[in-house]
Amino acid sequence: MHKDKILKLAKGFRGRSKNCIRVARERVEKSLQYAFRDRRNKKRDMRALWIQQINAGARQYGVKYSSLMSGLSSQNINLNRKMLSELAQSEPYSFKALVDQVIRMRGLQPGQAAAKAAA
After folding, report:
1. Angle 34-35-41 (CA atoms, 0-180°, nearest 5)?
2. pTM of the full structure
3. Which region among 28-37, 42-51, 94-103, 106-115 has the lowest average model confidence (pLDDT)?
4. Is the dihedral of CA 63, 69, 70, 75 positive or negative?
């Protein structure tokens, strides 16, 4: 990269990292490495967040995350984790319908699962 491009990328850095070309080049290279790494880590973090939200929504109705996901897959309901977490947050009745379907498949009544979880 040319000097102009490096200093443009280093804009906003502290100390000599923003105006001294040697220091700026090192800092810019390192920042690009961080950006590359964290683009992948962001996907990992989002998936973990979706799983936590689905688990919280499912446990309100007495079902664990793992049993909910295995029940949905055995009934051939193919919703990804992003959409399930959106349902758990913004459409609780639709999410409850999915949970009730899994509960019925397991042979329990919808009210029994929550009572069983509380005990």
Report:
1. 85
2. 0.78
3. 106-115
4. positive
Helix/strand/coil (H, E, C) string of 13-63?
Answer: CCHHHHCCHHHHHHHHHHHHHHHHHHHHHHHHHHHHHHHHHHHHHHHCCCC
Token code pair at residue 3: 């000097």
d(CA 10, CA 31): 9
The closest alpha carbon to 79, from 68, 64, 93, belongs to 68
pLDDT number for residue 95: 95
User: With the CA atoms of 42, 47, 48 and 53 taken in that order, what torsion angle do they form, in degrees rounded to the nearest 10?
Assistant: 130
50-90 residue pLDDT tens: 999 999 999 999 999 999 999 999 999 899 999 999 999 99
One DSSP character per residue, 95-117 reads HHHHHHHHHHHTT--HHHHHHHH
> Residue 96 in contact with residue 87, Cβ under 8 Å?
no
